[in-house]
Design goal:
Number of strands: 2
Helix content: 25-40%
Number of helices: 4
Strand content: 5-15%
Shape: elongated
Length: 107
């Protein structure tokens, strides 16, 4: 996260994220429940290098192994949505359309 938070605020944030995610106290990615030995970590869903924010809307609870495995990767679902938006744009279509042959030129 972009700044350190104290233990009390960390607990409040974890509670809010658990309530929001719909899966309660389990990993956002693998759905494994958190225990004393497998504690919740905060993960930036959209990597911090891409969206430099520590806002709650970009944070999820993740187990240590999933958080490490995801690292700074962009989740596949987000990448697909971005590609769909880009590919449907007029700029993309214009860039992918071959230029028209000059008039009067035959092959």
């Amino acid at each position: 996260m972009s700044k350190r938070i104290n233990a009390k605020n960390r607990a409040v944030l974890a509670q809010r994220l658990a309530e929001r995610s719909g899966c309660g106290w389990c990993c956002f990615y693998c759905r494994s429940p958190f225990t004393e030995t497998s504690r919740a970590t905060f993960d930036h869903y959209i990597p911090y290098w891409l969206w430099r924010t520590g806002r709650q809307r970009n944070l999820v609870l993740a187990c240590g192994p999933c958080n490490s495995a995801k690292a700074d990767a962009l989740p596949w679902a987000v990448a697909v949505l971005l590609l769909q938006k880009v590919r449907s744009s007029p700029v993309w279509r214009a860039a992918c359309t071959p230029p028209a042959a000059p008039s009067g030129v035959t092959h």
